[in-house]
Amino acid sequence: MATNEAIQAGLSARGDGSALVLTFSGSWILESDRPLARDFLQTKHDASSFEALHFEVDQLATWDTALLIFVRDACAWAEAAGIKYRFGDLPEGVRNMIRLSQAVPEMKHREQPEPPDFFTQVGEDAIRSYHGMDGYFSFIGQLTIDLFAFLRGKAQLRWKDFLFLLQSTGPKALLIVSLLSFLTGLIIAFIGVIQLQKFAADIYVADLVGLAVTRELGAVMAGVIMAGRTGAAFAAQIGSMQVNEEVDALTSFGISPMQFLVAPRVLALVLMMPLLCACADFVAILGGMVVAVAISDVSFVQYFNQVEQAVGLNDLLAGIFKSGVFGLIIAVAGCYRGLNCGRDATAVGQAATSAVVTSITWIVIADAIFAVSFHILGI
Amino acid sequence: MSGTKDMIKVEGLTMRYGDYTVMKSLDFNVRRGEVKVIMGGSGCGKSTLLKHLIGLERAAAGRITYGDDVFDPDGPSGEAIRRRFGVLFQGGALWSSMSVAENVALPLEEYTDLKPAEIREIVEFKLALVGLGGFGHRYPSELSGGMRKRAGLARAIALDPEILFFDEPSAGLDPLSSRRLDDLILELRDALGATVVVVTHELASIFAIADRALFLDVDTKTALCDANPHDLIDDPAVDVKVRQFLKRGETVSNVND
């Protein structure tokens, strides 16, 4: 077929006295089937028997980068073997392009250092995380100072921003927190009713839902949702401000990013989390009630009386107190990751991810500590 | 302030990122009221030097003095010195959650006891100065690159600073906007009586605005010269690298050749 022949790249070599002559023909384009310079030259020709490398292009129809990389490789081969090469015969475009590619000598990379062995790596990681802790501690220390400044009304911030933060961390999160808490209450009640019915103790589903939700699940659910929703947002916001030099701009005006960005966020979340948690508790108990009334003999009034008996004020306050601490954890993790964000788009993504992971991890750890200490304190 | 002629004095400044030394033992000064250009090829440490001057990076060695006060970014005097300068960052670095007017107003709200009405007037005036009158209600994302820079400039001059720092003011601007920004820099310098430090590699800007230019050389990690670019360009005593830079690489006569 004519079209197929058009994209055939031809190459032949012959010895011409002391010179090796490479004759190109056909179409030397990237789509064509063509030999590789190194294979062709190394397998078929002994470099030591020639003194020069010449090119012939009389039958060459078209060419593009394919020819250029071949010629470049051939030149490199010739140079390595100490043969002179002459590309005077090549088309002018090829000559110019090759010359251009050789204009600036290739950067010689320094030898990559040996990758450190296992123990060195562990040691270096340990030292790095130790210094990372340093950063965390000084962050928390500075934050404490700035929070006090805030409470004394001496902080540099804009009330408009603070109110906006209150709104975005509180009312705007209410719907999703309520929905998920309602479903959680529903699920617990469902599992509970089915087991308790075996003992004809359906009514205790109220105890189960009431205690589980107020002591643990309300706070933890709200915490996990807010970590994903708001913690990630804090890290991404502050991180992209870092990328955009906006944080530098604050510093250059002598405005502390800690006071201006971090303190209001921490305070907003610490204020809003207990409210969200209280709401989550209530809605989850309501969710439990729906199941209890629907699939067991418990009535609406019985359920609420039983909840009131089972759940003490201490249980409720313990959960709400915990949620405040979770709020602190989420906001600190988010802001810390944001402020320590690198200077590109990938770093912002990493900051958001690690903010969520850090805060959920610490929420669970803190919850475990609370469980033990509340038990010891008898709350 | 005392009558010293030097506004900024840099002595033995060594800049380092981890193990990598950017520049070592830099010595130079910026005179009161002059336009000082810091120039050099890409990646030579111009912007890093600017970050050291405004206290965003900590020097590995050496010291920076403003007037008679040694600049210690972490110390109590650091804040006071910071308030004496205005900085225009490369992309403008406007605070994206605030409108342009709020951006310009923030430094005023933080550091003055002016009434909101007065602040509003000052903001409108500063925006008019940079040719952005009536754009106050827009958000940074609704502005073009050049307008963002001008808005950033309005913010930088909000507190009538003594020293203005510019990081690549003409980067990403078309020749006309770049020219207008250069003119604006000179006019502001005259009007405010400010000292100006500009980091740039735009030749047109360098020749248009620089009183003195400092050339940072990436190979030797030092400053090669510090003088008016018009004098540098034909002076055979000046390092070839500097003259090549100023002539866009055209061959320069060299006494050593």
Folded structure, characterized:
Chain A folds into two domains: 7-103, STAS domain (Transcription Regulator spoIIAA, 2-Layer Sandwich); 149-377, no CATH class. Helices cover 71% and strands 9% of the residues of chain A. Chain A has helices at 2-6, 37-44, 65-81, 92-103, 118-151, 159-169, 171-197, 205-243, 246-252, 257-295, 300-310, 313-339, 345-377; strands spanning 9-16, 19-28, 52-63, 84-86. Chain A has a four-stranded mixed sheet with strand order 1-2-3-4, covered by helices on one side. The longest helix of chain A has 39 residues, at 205-243. Chain B has helices at residues 46-53, 76-82, 100-111, 116-129, 145-156, 175-192, 203-209, 229-232, 240-246; strands at residues 6-17, 20-31, 35-39, 61-66, 69-70, 85-88, 163-167, 195-199, 212-217, 222-227. The mean pLDDT of chain B is 87. The interface between A and B is medium-sized, with 17 and 24 residues.
Task: Using the CA coordinates, give the radius of gyration of chain B.
Answer: 19 Å
For the sheet with most strands of chain B, the description reads: 6 strands, mixed
Main beta sheet strand tally, sense and closure of chain A: 4 strands, mixed
Please give the order of strands in the largest beta sheet of chain A: 1-2-3-4
Poorly predicted regions of chain A are: none
The largest sheet of chain B has its strands arranged as 6-7-8-3-9-10
* Corresponding CATH superfamily of the domain at 1-84 and 163-171 and 195-244 in chain B: P-loop containing nucleotide triphosphate hydrolases
Class from secondary-structure proportions of chain B: alpha/beta
* Overall number of structural domains of chain A: 2
Strand tally of chain A: 4
Mean pLDDT across all residues of chain B, rounded? 87
Backbone shape of chain B:
globular
Distance between the termini of chain B: 49 Å
Straight-line N-to-C gap of chain A: 89 Å
Q: What would CATH call the class of the domain at 1-84 and 163-171 and 195-244 in chain B?
A: Alpha Beta
The assigned structural class of chain A equals alpha/beta
The percent range for strand residues of chain B is: 15-25%
Oligomer: heterodimer
| Secondary-structure element series of chain A | HEEHEHEHHHHHHHHHH
Tally of helical segments of chain A: 13
